[in-house]
Amino acid sequence: MLNKYPLWKYLMLVLVTIFGFLYAAPNLYGEDPAIQVSGVRNAVVDNSTLDKMRSVLADNQLEAKSVALENGLMLARFKSTEDQLKAQELVAKAMGDDYSVALNLAPATPAWLQSINAGPMKLGLDLRGGVHFLMEVDMAEAMNKADEQLQQDLRANLREEKLYYSAIRSLGQGKVKVTLRDQDLADKAEAYLKKSAGTEYLVERDGDSVLLSLTESRIKEIREYALSQNITIIRNRVNELGVAEPLVQRQGTDRILVELPGVQDTARAKEILGATATLEFHLVDTKHDLGDAINGRVPAGSVLYKSRDGRPVLAEKRVMLTGDHIQDAQSGFDEYQRPQVNIKLDSQGGDMMSRATKDSIGKPMATVFIEYKPTGEKGPDGKPVLKKVEEVIQVATIQARLGRSFRITGIDSPQEAHSLSLLLRAGALLAPIQIVEERTVGPSLGAQNIQDGMNSLIYGFIAIVIFMAIYYRAFGLIANMALLMNVVLIVGIMSLIPGATLTLPGIAGIVLTVGMSVDANVLIFERIREEIRAGTSIQKAIHQGYDNAFSTIADANITTMITALILFGVGTGPVKGFAVTLAIGILTSMFTAIVGTRAVVNLVYGGRRVEKLSI
């Protein structure tokens, strides 16, 4: 029989409608300004922590809507952002370094909706407010570090093979020149290096010297590793900042996009994210004369540093350990109440430190603090020039074989010890980064963006509803029902997808799909009209209208879907947000405009004699 749906299709539509309304409903309840407290470094959030927070709020006459433990976190909700910001500052000070206190917007979703994992859509930076950074990784410095590592490995390996060299120096761009003492040693070194080269570097002969060049695949691997490691470390630093729902993602071959919702203190965020502090541990060179080094005669295997009080320190160039192996770092005070940082290494770092200090008991060891600071100048490419600053913060005598735990003293202030411990906990950037773009979006501007976006959606929706009701009458009302269902489904699906974020361009994508959804119904209704004008019976006209329009609607939506997928694949940030809502909207509009309206039309007109259609 024409225009009749089986029962299972109606049941499916009912279930999809219930699903859409349930998962879209949390967006009606809004969000409360809140602070969330989580433990770091194995600190536990429990009832005692809860009591402490309540006490801090009560002592400062701050009224919270609720304070409770939720999903292993402590969450305090407030009536206004002013109370939220004040509470965050007070609670962070009271809780200390063992807890992260983050600004958040807590959904006011009822418990029965939360029990089915329903929550509101996540809002992007342009709607919620916060700071946006676009950071560029200094790949030249990453290559310099790779050169230095290659030189250190060559020195150790050639000594072990008794291939005595007179010099090893970098030629830049991943090239290192090894000069041997005679032709015979050069022949042996060339054979050994070619055997051990693998896919890492190419070996060429140049008289008494051997040239090593990193392969293209190795250079690419170094650049990829520098970018991925920096992304991981920046994520760790964002966690230390205590930001809820941050965005840290790769952009292109050497850039990192960072968005911190709710953060307004850009200076603090830049200080933590862009800092490049790390430590290196070197044995002090006691074999050579310090005076000769000060006068410019620095031995080949040593380097001359300065301590913080300006005194010169001659240290061995060989690095005993770098900050890459630091697993935890906590600020504190020594027995004389001087600031210090307690270091805990990973297992590999502990083994390296143990081997390095095994035969060095009684010898002095220098702790070198390294960071990159802006010079205020710009290079030929227009990018800011960074200066590498190295200073010795401590020279201590190795009293016993060191392992995974030890401490760093000689730090100027408790604040510096706290900042250093934070950076070392989060990790040392493999290569310096520079902030090439910075934007701040205030909460009021975000609220205005939401209002403007919603107004555009509402006005467009009302205009389409009025047009369809007037022009297509009863069928227009059916199309309007499908249009409403389409918007509900988009919001429900966006709320359900964990990684989906609604941005202002995303709202534009929803508005666009609203028009596209009606466009499909316009095609169907016009085909039905054409069939009726041609003298076709009412039931057959409805059937032919839907069937004949389907291929046209499918072709148009498939090409738009391909465009949305391309935008998502190559786009970044807001472009991805637009592509996501567009793609979801295409699928839901196809479903509501074809399956949904057809079900209602079949229910109203199918299976009975109809003399005239209200179309």
Strand order of the largest sheet: 2-3-1-4
Shape field: elongated
Helix content: 40-55%
For the biggest sheet, the summary is: 4 strands, antiparallel
In whole angstroms, how far apart are the ends? 22 Å
CATH homology superfamily name of the largest domain? Multidrug efflux transporter AcrB transmembrane domain
Number of domains: 4
Oligomer: single chain
- Weakly predicted, low-confidence segments: none
CATH architecture of the largest domain: Up-down Bundle
Mean pLDDT: 82
Number of helices: 16
Q: What is the count of β-strands? A: 23
Beta-strand percent range: 15-25%
Relevant terms:
single chain; 615 residues; alpha+beta; Multidrug efflux transporter AcrB transmembrane fold; Alpha-Beta Plaits; Gyrase A, domain 2; 4 domains; 4-stranded antiparallel β-sheet; 16 helices; 50% helix; elongated
Brief synopsis:
It contains 16 helices and 23 strands.
Structure report:
This protein is an alpha+beta fold. It folds into four domains: 7-26 and 444-605, Up-down Bundle (Multidrug efflux transporter AcrB transmembrane fold), CATH 1.20.1640.10; 31-107, Alpha-Beta Plaits; 139-215, 2-Layer Sandwich (Gyrase A, domain 2), CATH 3.30.1360; 276-436, Gyrase A, domain 2 (2-Layer Sandwich), CATH 3.30.1360.200. It is 50% helix and 25% strand. The protein contains 16 helices and 23 strands. It has a four-stranded antiparallel beta sheet with strand order 2-3-1-4. A hairpin with a 2-residue loop joins strand 9 and strand 10 (209-214). Helix 2 packs across helix 3, helix 6 packs across helix 8 (216-241) and helix 13 crosses helix 14. The model has no long low-confidence stretch (mean pLDDT 82).
